Amino acid sequence: MRKVFVYPLVIAGTAAAGLVATGSPASAHGYVSAPPSRQALCASRAVADCGQIQFEPQSVEGPKGLRSCDGGVSQFAILNDNSRAWPARTVGSSVTFTWVFTARHRTSNWEYFVGNTRVAVVDGGNQQPDAVVSHQVDLSRFPGRRTVLAIWNIGDTANAFYSCVDLNVGGSSAPSTPAPPPVRPTTPPPSSAPPPPANASGTWATNTAYKIGEEVTFQGKRYRCRQSHTSLSGWEPSIFTLALWLPV
Predict the structure, then answer these.
(1) What is the pLDDT of residues 61-98, one digit of tens each?
(2) Which CATH architecture has domain 208-247?
(3) DSSP-derived 3-state class of residue 99
């Protein structure tokens, strides 16, 4: 694992190690999963009525050099609709953006924009990235409600992938509430069936929104979700182990 720190126009970031097997769907690429991008909010159903993007948040691909949330893709135009009142994540002045890559193209660089101002750039070295990559970006010059456009510029094509992330930079977080007192365990009624594991979601299935910490069974093995996402055919836990799922 390699760590590099990013400040405005200076590389800063950490790459989380991960492996992805070949055989991913051709339409699968990558997007910002945390703080949740607009397509991530649609995929998790935190924002309703998003259309096709809810099923393929990783597919916002368009020519390099655009400054739009939808990458110029008409069926994803909802991502440009600011009237949707997209939820803004409250963050500090330094923000860690995490990308999930479902097809790891060689990378020219990653760029981060607030309006027309490029606030950070991270060199990809024309190398294949890890399955999960994080960059730390200084947004101290941009307090308040902001939309950050994160761009993944591919090294071996003329295209890029686009993710817009709505933030409340430097905003105050809600006051924490004290933890409730511990509950004394009670004796369950007799049962021949063992109790289900915590956070169990049953058997892995396609077109299902999974949240961090949820557990599934696939081909007789258990996996715990490490990145919120909506599953697709070809995204089975055995393929995306370490990227989206961790063996339990």
Answers:
(1) 999 999 999 999 999 999 999 999 899 999 999 999 99
(2) Ribbon (2.10)
(3) strand
